[in-house]
Amino acid sequence: MTSVTVLGTGLMGSAMARHMAGQDLDVRAWNRTADKARALRPDGVRPASNVEEAVRGADAVITMVPTGDVVASLAARFLPAMPVEAVWLQMSTVGGVWTDRLLRLAADAGRRMLDAPVSGSSQPAEQGKLVLIVSGASEALERARPVLEVLGSHIAHVGTAGEASRVKMIVNSWMTASVVAMADTMLACEQLGLDPAHVLRVLEDGPLGMPYALQKAAEIRARTYPAGFPLSLALKDLGLLADERDRSSRLSDTVRETMRRAVEAGHGREDVAAVAEILRRDLL
């Protein structure tokens, strides 16, 4: 049986751990808040009391935590303890600069790391339908494939180093901008006295029907925002991309500022679609 360790059992990490356990993988989990890992025991996930214990005997180690400095602090502990033949799947969205540092840490420890952020929220994670963006050595990818194929519906191998994290930042920027655009579209319907269903029907019946944006439209219309991708994390990812670009565009600056104001207004833990509340406050 393939043994997988998940370090970080927040919204995404817990969803991934539950799904893998349901697919007959041997899954162990650790989280800084121990109760979050222990809560997965009924789903067949074995909680570990510390990082070193969690990774012993693992075929693959997944890191899914918020920031690069947290990943690095964990790596200093688990890299010496994980088996030499294991593969570290670094799935946290930490940006290209941090990814380069983490790759060096793995190399210095004589361990293999794949830069493997995911595209998708907690719902596709529960269903094993994530899109996995992977960069790293082909040999490491093949060794990790049994785990990756359980987690995702598609594996995009985009390079040999830290390219995947950079692709992920750009994809998230596009996704966030599309949500802001849909929020503005719903607001325009309201301002013009139109039933949004008419606009959405036109989108659904033609080539412009982006499923994700249509899902967000339903949340915006209901004004309920269960966190699939929290606003605070979307803002963090936009900041990572801005840090690496030579110059940011006017559009990206506008989207990022809108997200920042939404977080400051108290919507940080809600889904990214909650940005609609800021646009509504500004114009209605």
TrEMBL record:
Q: What is its EC number?
A: 1.1.-.-
**Highest taxon of the source?**
Bacteria
PANTHER family membership: CYTOKINE-LIKE NUCLEAR FACTOR N-PAC (PTHR43580:SF2), OXIDOREDUCTASE GLYR1-RELATED (PTHR43580)
Pfam families on file? NAD_binding_11, NAD_binding_2
3-hydroxyisobutyrate dehydrogenase-like NAD-binding domain sequence ranges? 162-278
InterPro entries with a match to the protein in the record: 6-PGluconate_DH-like_C_sf (IPR008927), 6PGD_dom2 (IPR013328), 6PGDH_NADP-bd (IPR006115), HIBADH-like_NADP-bd (IPR029154), HIBADH-related (IPR015815), HIBADH-related_NP60_sf (IPR051265), NAD(P)-bd_dom_sf (IPR036291)
Family membership: Belongs to the HIBADH-related family.
Q: Which residues form a coiled coil?
A: none
Keywords, alphabetical: NAD, Oxidoreductase
Q: Which GO terms describe its molecular function?
A: oxidoreductase activity
UniProt-listed SUPFAM superfamilies:
6-phosphogluconate dehydrogenase C-terminal domain-like (SSF48179), NAD(P)-binding Rossmann-fold domains (SSF51735)
Q: Does the keyword Oxidoreductase apply?
A: yes
Q: What is this protein called?
A: NAD(P)-dependent oxidoreductase
6-phosphogluconate dehydrogenase NADP-binding domain sequence ranges:
4-159
